[in-house]
Each structure stands twice: as C-alpha cells, then as structure tokens.
C-alpha cells in the first residue's frame, strides 16, 4: 500500500493503537518477568528461612538435653556420686517428674554392670553392649546422639543422648544416658506445615525419615523407617550441593527444597515449598496483564475513533479544497465543512482567504508581465499586497527599476571591475607573502607539539610506575589485615582459656573448703576418741593446714588470673582499635589506587589530544600551502579579469540610456 494515500485519521488511529500495544506489551512482559523472578526468589528465600528455622528448633531441642546431660555428668563426677549409687537412684527418681520431654535418665556402670534409672525400671537380661549409645560413649568423651529406636521399657521411639563418666583417676567407670521421646520433634515438624503446602522433615545421612508432618511416613511399629527412596523423591541436587534446588517427588508436584545439617549429629532438616504455587502465581499475573492489555487496546481504539471522527475527518474536506488549488481551480465552497473547534474554524477561514487573495494577485501579476513583455517598464502594481505576498509587488517594482538602470549600472560596474581587478592583483601578491610566513610558523608549532607528546608519554610511564607501587602497597596492606584478624582470633582464644582456668581454680577452691570442713570434723571425732584418736587428730590438723594453704594459693591464683583476664580484655580492645585504624589505612590506599587509575586515564586522553593536534597542524600546513598556490593563481586571474572588464566597457558604450 502507498503510504501517501492513507488519511491522517487512519494514521492517527493506527499509530495510537500501535503505541498502546507496544507500551502495554513491554510493560506486561517486564512486569511478568519481574513478578515471576520476585515470586521465585521469595519462594527460595522462604524455603531457606524455613530450613534455617527448623534446624534451629531441632538444634535447640537437642541442645537442651545435651546441656542437661553435661550438667548431671559434671555433678556425678565432681561429687563422686558413683560411691553411693543407691542415693543417686533415689535422686533420679525424685527428678523424673520434673523432666519435661525426657523419658528416662539412667547410669550404667561399666565396671560392675550396675544399672540405675529415673523410673525404677528393671533391665532384665538386656544386652547394653550392643546398644548404639553404649558403643559410642565407651570410646568417645563427647556427647553421643543415637538414631531413633524402640525403647525396651516403653516400646516407643526414643533418641538417646549419652556421655561417659570418669572417676578422680580419669578412668572410665560408667555411662550416663538420657532418653528423649520424639513428641517434641513431631510437634516442631508439624507446626511448619502451612496452607501453601510448605513443610519440613528430619532425615539422617542414610536418608531415613525420622519425623515427617505426614503420619503415613512415620516409623512402623517395628521401628523401621521410611527413606527418601520409599517416597519416590529425588533430593540428590539439594543434598549434594547444599543449595536450594527443585526436587521431584513421585505422585506430587515438584518442590523447592533446602537442607540444613544439625551440628554434632548426622541429622538433617529438609524444607519443601511446592513449585506449583510459583507457577500458578505467574500464570495469574500473565492472565491479568493480558486482560489489561486487551481492555486498554479496545478502549484506546474507541477513544481514537471518536476523536478522529470529530476533529480529524473535517480536515479531509479542507484537503479536497486544497487539491483544487493544485490544478488552478480558484472557485471553492466551504459551507459543508463543520467548524466544531477554534482551529478548524481558523483553518477554513484561512483557506477561503488564500483562494480569494491568490485569485486577485495572480490576475494583476499576469497583466503586468504581459506589459513588460512589450517593453514598457513604467507600469506598477495597484493591489494591496500583504504579508508574504508583498514580495510579489516589490519584485515587480524591482524588475522595472532594475531594467531601467541596468545599462547605466553595467557601465559603472565595468569600470569598477577594472579598478578592483588591479587591487585584487596587489592583494594576491600580499596574500602569497603572508601564507609563506604562516607555513613557516606552523612547521615550528608542529615540532614543539612533538616534544610535548614525548614529555606526556614519559609522564604516563612514571604514573604507571606509581600505580604499580600503590597496588603493591595495597597487597601488603591486605596481608597485614589478615595477620591482624588472626591476632584478634588468638586474643579471643586466650580470653576463653583464661576464663576456663578461672572456673577450674574456683572448683579447686571449693574442694579445699570441703577438705577443710572434713578435716575439722575428723579432728572433732579424734578428740572424742581420746588417746586412741590423738594420731588421727594430728593428721586432721595437718590436712586442715594443707587445705587452708591450698585455699590461700587458690585465692592468689584467682587474683592473678583476674588481673591477666583484665589485661587480655585491654589487649583485645587495643587490637580491635588497631584493626579499625588498619581498615582506615586500607580505605585510603584504595582511594589512592583509584586516583592513580584516573590520573593515568586523563594523561592518556591528553596524549590522544596532542596526537590529534599534531594531525590538525599538518592539515593546516597543507591548507596554507594550498592557499599560497591559490594566491598565485589569483594574480593570473586578476590580470585576465582586467582585460575582460575593458572589453565589456567598450561594448556597453554602444548603448544609450
């Protein structure tokens, strides 16, 4: 289709609709992409946050039991509870009802096989040596956490935390265990299930499922656990990379999954979030965007059509009238053109005025030109020409006046041309001399520009050396920062070690006080025994004296350690302040590096400018040489012009004016 045949109304409609479609389509695509990315990122962040929160809750659940186990183990060793197991049995029985979430606390002697517990349960012929907690704690000093198993006393799933016990000779004499029921773990896992289908579950390194919000995946009555393979689930990417990824579950939609390890155990918390919610949200956004685009296009088409019908269609009739002007038809009728706006009214009136004015002006112009053709240049225009048409009147008058004075002026001009030709010749000689001098000056300027370029190149080399030195200092500063961080970590270690020594010394002081009391009691008993107890009284006094000296020494050590601890804290403060100063130095070095890079860039730009200046100078020298050549040619032209002026003057002298 020829675009020149398309009306303005159609162009406006098509253009406006095309703009609406383009803008709304781009907006919709950008919005869909942005919302989709945002929804996907939110889903990944949610599943990671849920995994972190679940891992923290499970860790806190296990951590409380581990802390309790550490406490009772420490009490058992320090107070020599192993010397009176019957008393400790009564203590455990009294504590049982106070322990929330703990099924049983027990002690097994590895020397005698004695077994006491907090519920008074008789173990019968149970083989403890085959138990996971027994094997771990017999060879390891740290707390062991078993996989869930069926409790022999209750036949319910439990988890055991165990730790070995040592006597004053640092010999393993038994194991203390704490059985934890899994109700709290199932509660933690069940609380994470939300209406969107997000949830967590707990597995181990063998991918056995310990706790799951779906009761169908809980352990069987025989204590057998489902695995991820039993679920038909593929979590290989998540478990291998420890990053959030999409997992496939047989019979269910894909999920975003994240995994977090439980410190000190082989347990893992897996978090799931269905991908279907993300896909549905994106589809909804696409449908909303498409609906908005279609509605906007329809509304834009209706508004555009209405607008063009009222305000643009009348222009077509004005165009038809102007088409008559193209073929010279000056007779028009504007009565059928609606004047529904100020602009249209003005346009129609102007069209009428143009046609009437052109009709008058053209008639008079044709008449005057026919008289000029007959050789009469005295006639002048009578119409009142206005605006741009005033040029017609002025042009006709100028033609008349010009023709009358043409011969006279031509004669005078011929004389002037002859005189100017002589002056041009003299000026050309002078120009030739000046351009020669300019060429010499430009050659000198080019040589100096070369020297400046060489100087800037040398400066660039020096700046490059400076930049290398700054980069080297920056690297050394980075090494210093690493050493400073190691020093801070070392100071933290000294602080922790000193605090632990203070605790140990405090315990020694407590033992000394207890020894003093025992010695006092022994002395009293020896006094009651009379002569038979004199030797024992002497020993008791010596023990008291030793205990008092021990207490005094402990106090002195405590004082020294307190002083050392204050010194370590002051050292930490000074190291921290030094680290901050070092960081400020690093920032300054970084700024210096950036300044060097900027200076190098600016100097390179100057070098480029000098090169361009040298090129421009060479071009200017070439131009001056061309000007010299032109000046020489002008001398020859002025001589020829003088000859032509004399010839023209001779011919004009033949006319009479």
CATH superfamily of the largest domain: PAS domain
Nearest-integer average pLDDT: 78
Q: Would you tell me which CATH topology of the largest domain applies?
A: Beta-Lactamase
Q: Supply the helix-strand structural class.
A: alpha+beta
The first-to-last residue Cα distance is 63 Å
Shape: elongated
Q: Look at the structure and give the CATH class of the largest domain.
A: Alpha Beta
Low-confidence stretches: none
Second rung of CATH, namely the architecture of the largest domain: 2-Layer Sandwich
Determine the fraction of residues in helical runs and give it as a percent range: 55-70%
Count of runs of 4 or more consecutive helical residues: 9
In this structure, how is the largest beta sheet organized? 6 strands, antiparallel
Reading the helices and strands in chain order gives HHEEHEEEEHEEEHEEEHHHH
Strand content: 5-15%
Number of strands: 12
Number of domains: 2
